[in-house]
Design goal:
- This protein is of the alpha/beta class.
- It has helices at 3-8, 25-37, 49-53, 74-87, 101-107, 109-117, 163-168, 185-197, 211-214, 221-230, 256-260, 271-294; strands at residues 41-46, 66-69, 94-100, 123-128, 174-178, 202-207, 237-240, 243-246.
- It has one domain (3-294): Rossmann fold (3-Layer(aba) Sandwich).
- It has twelve helices and eight strands.
- The chain has an eight-stranded mixed β-sheet, sandwiched between helices.
- The radius of gyration is 18 Å and the shape is globular.
- One of its GO terms (molecular function) is oxidoreductase activity.
- It comes from Candidatus Wildermuthbacteria bacterium RIFCSPHIGHO2_02_FULL_47_17.
- Keywords: Oxidoreductase.
């Protein structure tokens, strides 16, 4: 067993034979997250790609209990499951939500926000593939500026929601961003383990590259994810009890153009728009630096 497997795969919970697309970032992320959390976990998964990936009843790609839930109510449902487990004396069983950006940032935001406000004892994973991919790639609140979707054929004219700072305003004990790419494997595993060891509402924002939605060849999933991190488009950080910390600093920052040019969804970008995108990324990083220095 290699070093990567020793670090990540404790149990084989997410099984081969799932129905995810080739190169799906979700499948890579879920395999390792589920393995880290182990079998004593109940997954609550609202409508989205992961519900299809589970397979058709009576088969399942998950070797642990899974509840497939409505778009708008995953966090509320998870809160009820956790309350029931406490009554049964099983408070140590993890209750985890794996929800897409549409369910989290848009349709399910009310239940999500309410659960965070109550500090419900659940793990909440945002599977960020940056659009409503399961229903045909419509824009969501997590779609980046300029990205092509079926509802923004000329490119989205709205910036992506800063969901981390929105969640942090709920004063939850822990939030973090994660990306499964070789330079940050240890960062990924440590954050999942740190979140699992705590109580209360924990929010983990996971980048999930999507070949058909982002329009890149299936063999580039890990490279696209790495470029998102190395260009600081998707910075890695955590906020624990109100204290912000950048957890990964690229040794050599990659220009955002290197990330954008590999994806057909940004094919309409002009040089001026690429420069605007770069400035936005730089400003976001500077804001993270300020948050860390003021914590």
């Amino acid at each position: 067993m290699g070093k990567l497997d020793e670090l990540l795969a404790k149990d084989d919970i997410f099984l081969p034979g799932h129905r995810a697309c080739p190169g799906c970032g979700f499948a890579l992320n879920m395999r390792h997250v589920a393995g880290l959390l182990g079998a004593d976990t109940i997954w609550i998964i609202p409508a989205g790609c992961p519900t299809i990936c589970a397979g058709r009843w009576p088969n399942s790609a998950y070797r642990t209990p899974v509840e497939l839930e409505l778009f708008a109510s995953a966090a509320a449902y998870a809160s009820g499951v956790k309350a029931g487990l406490r009554v049964l004396g099983r408070s140590d069983t993890q209750v985890a939500v794996w929800a897409g950006d549409g369910s989290t940032c848009d349709i399910g935001f009310a239940a999500f926000s309410a659960a965070a406000e109550r500090n419900e004892d659940i793990l909440y994973f945002l599977n960020d593939n940056q659009a409503y991919m399961n229903t045909g790639n419509q824009r969501s609140g997590a779609t980046p500026y300029g990205a092509w979707t079926t509802t923004t054929p000329q490119g989205s004219g709205i910036n992506k929601k800063d969901i981390a700072r929105i969640v942090a305003a709920h004063n939850i004990p822990y939030l973090a961003t994660l990306a499964m790419t070789p330079p940050t494997v240890t960062d990924f595993a440590q954050k999942v383990n740190r979140a699992a060891e705590q109580k209360g509402f924990r929010f983990l924002h996971v980048l999930s590259s999507c070949p058909p939605g982002w329009k890149f060849p299936i063999g580039l999933t890990v490279k696209i994810t790495r470029l998102a991190v190395e260009s600081r488009i998707f910075p890695l950080f955590e906020c624990e009890n109100g204290k912000w910390r950048i957890t990964y600093r690229p040794r050599k920052v990659v220009p955002v153009a290197e990330y954008l040019k590999l994806q057909g969804r940004f094919a309409r970008f002009t040089e001026q728009e690429i420069e605007m995108f770069q400035q936005s990324v730089n400003s976001r990083w500077e804001e993270l630096e300020r948050l860390q220095s003021s914590s």
